[in-house]
Design a protein that fits this description.
Strand order of the largest sheet: 3-2-1-4-7-6-8
CATH class of the largest domain: Alpha Beta
Number of domains: 2
Strand content: 5-15%
Helix content: 40-55%
Structural class: alpha/beta
CATH superfamily of the largest domain: Spore Coat Polysaccharide Biosynthesis Protein SpsA, Chain A
Number of helices: 15
Order of helices and strands: EHEEHHEEHEHEHHEEHHHHHHHH
Radius of gyration: 23 Å
Distance between the termini: 49 Å
InterPro entries: Nucleotide-diphossugar_trans
Number of strands: 9
Shape: globular
Length: about 375
């Protein structure tokens, strides 16, 4: 049975569409999707926009938004997950189903920000020419890793070796046409084969699609759509502040307001980074990383949204400290001076107490 057999076609087929998949009652992912949509709207030129479709089991969450929803039942979500318990299979099924709704489809993960007019990006999609978020790595560079060996046997059976240039792409953005149904059916078959006896990695959906694209022309979208998968915590904090301030009810004013939210995590200025590097010149290894993250959070640019997420730098530092043995942790944190002697102090004296309290609370919670 095909993934496209599960649902009736609830919307008219259109020429261009942005397609999202979001399911479950998770506030953070709903906010991701809504903010991504706002950035797409903020870059639209001359009022021209593709259809925006959301495949979801909670269509009520998007009432009043300029989107069309396709309701996913629990039965559909279960069928899309497949018999092997691999939930990212749902994404491949969602894109396959989306091909029935438009001539050109730009599938976007919710953790994305548009940096350019969506219509300009869609214009780059042509039959036989594809868009993907980014090239991540060559198979030859990972095929000997323990967690890839099982998959390597499956790929060798398909003719993929370390020497034939197999490229692996991140599928956070995927631009395809309605001519690609067979490619996605093949990709889903690969997913089912490669997860049949369990799986050691969770990017099999991306690898299966990369295999289906092997030898085809693929262009990256990372300069046009920012997929912040590696820095989610920073953007979640900024989005939480944005929607707490302005609410989630859609309005054109909300589109304008989203322009004031930074599109990058809060790096200090180049001059501040150079100063921090100099201060840490005598430190090495994990302690240097901890010091850098603590000072980066303190030196974040003076901006309300950056202030809301600077603690995420301190969270990165705390995660490193949590890997240390107890004696090393105590040496860092149990200090009479109020700040670790091994590290330079932040420029903002008030941050010393805030940072130390944050680190101590994190270690106490973990223990």
């Amino acid at each position: 049975m095909s993934c496209t057999d599960f649902l009736a076609i609830p919307v008219e087929k259109t020429r261009h569409q942005l397609l999202y998949l979001i399911y479950g009652d998770h506030e953070v992912y709903r906010r991701e999707a809504k903010f991504s949509i706002l950035t797409a709207l903020s870059h639209a030129r001359n009022g021209k926009l593709p259809s925006i479709r959301i495949l979801t089991d909670r269509p009520q969450d998007y009432a009043g938004w300029p989107v069309e929803t396709v309701t996913l039942t629990q039965e559909t979500l279960t069928l899309w997950q497949g018999a092997n318990g691999y939930h990212h299979r749902r994404k491949a099924c969602a894109i396959a189903y989306g091909l029935t709704l438009a001539q050109k489809t730009l599938f976007i993960d919710t953790d994305t920000l548009f940096l350019r007019d969506p219509m300009q990006i869609l214009d780059r999609i042509e039959p036989g020419h594809y868009l993907m978020d980014r090239f991540e790595y060559h198979w030859k560079n990972v095929h000997e890793r323990p967690d890839y060996r099982k998959l390597g046997g499956c790929l060798r059976a398909r003719g993929v070796t370390a020497d034939n240039g197999f490229k692996l792409f991140n599928s956070g953005v995927c631009g395809v046409t309605d001519h690609d149904t067979a490619m996605f059916e093949a990709s889903i078959q690969s997913i089912d084969e490669w997860t049949r006896d369990g799986f050691d990695i969770h990017t099999i959906e991306q690898i299966a699609l990369s295999f289906a694209l092997h030898g085809k022309p693929v262009r990256e979208t990372k300069k046009h759509i920012y997929h912040y998968f590696a820095d989610k915590r920073f953007f979640h904090a900024m989005q939480a502040l944005f929607f707490t301030r302005h609410g989630e009810a859609f309005s054109q004013n909300l589109v304008e307001l989203c322009r004031g939210v930074p599109r990058a995590k809060p790096f200090p200025s180049a001059w501040q980074r150079l100063k921090i590097k100099w201060k840490l010149r005598h430190q090495r290894g994990p302690l240097r990383k901890v010091g850098r993250d603590l000072l980066y959070g303190s030196a974040a640019p003076d901006h309300p949204y950056y202030t809301a997420c600077r603690h995420e730098w301190w969270e990165s530092a705390s995660r490193e400290v949590l890997r240390w043995d107890r004696s090393r942790q105590k040496k860092l944190l149990e200090t009479k001076q109020g700040w670790p002697a091994q590290l330079p102090r932040p420029e903002k004296p008030e941050d010393e107490r805030i940072i130390m309290k944050y680190l101590i609370n994190r270690l106490e919670a973990a223990s």
